[in-house]
Write a structure and sequence with these properties.
- The complex is a heterodimer of chains A (about 425) and B (about 160).
- Chain A has about 425 residues and is of the alpha/beta class.
- In chain A, about 40% of the residues lie in helices and about 15% in strands.
- A five-stranded parallel sheet of chain A has the order 13-12-11-14-15, with helices on both faces. Chain A has a four-stranded parallel sheet with strand order 4-3-2-5.
- The radius of gyration of chain A is 22 Å and the shape is globular.
- Chain B has a single domain, classed as Glucose Oxidase, domain 1.
- Chain B has four helices and twelve strands, in the order ββββββββαβαβαββα.
- In chain B, a hairpin with a 4-residue loop joins β5 and β6.
- Chain B is α/β, with parallel strands linked by helices.
- Chain B has an eight-stranded mixed sheet.
- In chain B, α1 runs parallel beside α2.
- Classes of the chains: A alpha/beta (about 425), B alpha/beta (about 160).
- Chains A and B meet through α1, α2, α6 and α14 of A and β2, β8, α1 and α2 of B.
């Protein structure tokens, strides 16, 4: 491919992968059969920056996604590839505050990706909508919350790839053999002894936030977890651990696929550090997550980070219980398109709409930098979203349970506390 | 942009400070040569959601560099964390003219490797001594990416040469 025999675009993609592989110190590539990224996505900055370059979306793809100084024409992808979150809900971009121009660009970007053979999932949770890699499969995924799920929960293998490396991998079917592709690099490094019951989604999110903060980019091994979490709890734990730190892989002894025993999790080695998560650590984590908030008047509630599963939308409907949200507050719930379709069919979207809220797809408030006009104080049930949103948008944000958040939507007041 | 000219870069210490230079040896991540004032953090850096790309300013809540920009600095840091948008943020900073002049870091990950590659600035890692112990913010640092060499002129020596 490097010699250009398979076309200019594949040559440029391979050149980028070689630079990247050398930077990593990787000695070879591995074939990948599942790539998740955001190729060709015309963000406002990129659309403006490349507007006078010839080639249309091929300019963004060549110069940005492949980091090539030369313009190339994007060919069809060489392996299974999907498009993650980004752009705007095609049916509700006005609610998200997008301009007609941005919405049009989003549709063009989506068409461009689809025409080149990329599955349009428009979500940070590909594993919730049919892209479930098999154990041991070499993947090249972006989206830190999906990467950690892919590795730890599914036992497939991916590093946290970026927009440029996934774009190149889509064209070549190659990715550097480094890090989590290598079996011995998947072993645990730190032991976390959990001595408190972990049950709710909020508890799993706090535990993940604590773990990411203490292990940073290393591989934690959790002991003392008695009940296996479900998909939603894994999703919130992993997203949090990948935000406060750079966790891409973890083990829960007796529960996750590569850790039947403590010895399997560490590969016979000793942990470099043993840490404890108990009542005190839980309280400190809760306080850290709420450190950005002081005003109890809540004007925005956002659910769906990572994108909501159907049962989370059902839970919101159950908590709303036929009531309307406060006129001082907005409620936006973000699922993938596929989950929204199921929510539509189940009548849940209509329940949310009647309560005064919206079910919106493709993005979230952090990714889309989209808030209801005038938002000053948000309430969130995701540690990941709390980690990012106040810093990015200059607002206050409370963290709590889904019930605390729906209560805030109904009353316009934050009354959450650590229970 | 790498600095290859014979004349010293603006703010660079004079040649007679060479005796006070500390040399660290590591390995190339991205080739090229550049020099500039160090901006140092012992903390990992979150790219997307932690850095404002158009100004190169760290925005992460509770980060020790919050409010400071790495534009035109030699960024000396522990490593990368957080979102997979790390490379996009540093790539965008390059296009916006707010990228660091060079990168020196300790912990190799795919995020930081890809980010350094697309930022197209000299970058070095795996140094024989911990750069976070030796380099302080304000020191003058020369990075030779191809040779994997980082030269550090300590702030006190550098400061006395300044007008």
């Amino acid at each position: 491919m490097l010699d250009g025999a398979e076309g200019k675009a594949r040559q440029k993609a391979m050149e980028l992968l070689v630079r990247y592989g050398e930077a990593l110190g990787a000695e070879r590539f591995v074939d990948t059969t599942n790539v998740a990224g955001v190729p060709g996505q015309p963000t406002p900055f990129l659309a403006e920056y490349y507007k006078n370059y010839p080639g249309g979306l091929d300019a963004i793809f060549s110069h940005f996604d492949l980091d090539s100084d030369e313009l190339v024409e994007m060919p069809k992808v060489a392996t299974r590839a999907c498009h993650l979150q980004g752009g705007y809900d095609p049916d509700h971009w006005q609610i998200l505050g997008a301009s007609p121009e941005a919405a049009r660009r989003g549709r063009e970007g989506e068409r461009y990706a689809a025409d080149h053979g990329i599955e349009i999932l428009k979500t940070c949770t590909p594993y919730l909508v049919g892209n479930v890699p098999k154990r041991g499969e070499h993947c090249a995924w972006m989206e830190s919350s999906a990467v950690i799920y892919c590795n730890a929960v599914l036992g497939a293998r991916t590093n946290t790839e970026g927009r440029e490396s996934t774009s190149a991998a889509m064209l070549t079917g190659k990715i550097p053999y480094f890090g989590l592709h290598v079996p011995e690099c998947r072993l645990g490094t730190h032991r976390i002894e959990v001595d408190i019951g972990i049950d709710s989604i909020m508890d799993w999110g706090m535990l993940g936030y604590f773990v990411g903060d203490v292990v940073q980019e290393h591989i934690p091994v959790l002991t003392g977890i008695e009940r296996a979490p479900d998909l939603v709890r894994y999703k919130h734990f992993g997203a949090a651990a990948a935000s406060s730190g750079g966790v891409e892989m973890y083990h829960i002894v007796g529960i996750t696929p590569e850790a039947p025993t403590l010895d399997d999790a560490f590969g016979g080695r000793s942990p470099v550090e043993v840490l404890r998560y108990g009542r005190e650590e839980r309280r400190r984590t809760y306080e850290a997550l709420n450190a950005n908030a002081s005003d109890t008047n809540v004007d925005y509630v956002m659910l769906g980070c990572p994108h909501a599963a159907l049962e989370q939308i059902e839970e919101a409907c159950r908590l709303l219980d036929g009531r309307r949200i406060s006129e001082n507050c907005r409620l936006w719930i973000f699922p993938s398109r596929a989950v929204r379709r199921r929510a539509d069919e189940a009548g849940l979207t209509e329940v949310i709409r009647k309560a005064g809220g919206h079910v919106l797809t493709d993005t979230c408030s952090a990714i889309g930098q989209a808030l209801p006009p005038g938002t000053k104080v948000a309430a969130l049930d995701s540690a990941k979203q709390v980690h990012y949103l106040p810093a990015m948008m200059g607002i206050e944000a409370w963290f709590g349970s889904t019930a605390d958040c729906i209560d805030a939507a109904l009353t316009g007041r934050w009354r959450g506390e650590l229970r | 942009m790498s600095v290859r000219e014979k004349t010293p870069a603006a703010g660079a210490p004079a040649a007679d400070d060479e005796a006070e230079t500390i040399v660290l040896r590591g390995r190339k991540v991205v080739g090229g040569r550049a020099e500039g004032e160090a901006l140092v953090t012992r903390q990992t850096i979150s790219g997307w959601g932690g850095v404002h790309a158009l100004t190169g300013t760290i925005i992460e809540s509770r980060h020790e560099l919050k409010g400071q920009s790495f534009k035109d600095k030699v960024l000396v840091f522990r490593g990368a964390k957080g979102s997979s948008g790390w490379s996009v943020v540093f790539h965008t900073a390059r296009l916006a003219g707010s990228a660091p002049k060079a990168m020196v870091f300790n912990e190799m990950t795919t995020k930081v490797a890809l980010g350094a590659v697309v930022t197209r600035v000299p970058a070095v890692t795996a140094l024989d001594r911990d750069p976070l112990e030796i380099i302080e913010t304000g020191d003058w640092v020369r990075v030779d990416g191809d040779a994997g060499i980082v030269e550090v002129v300590k702030r006190r020596a550098a400061a006395k040469e300044r007008p």
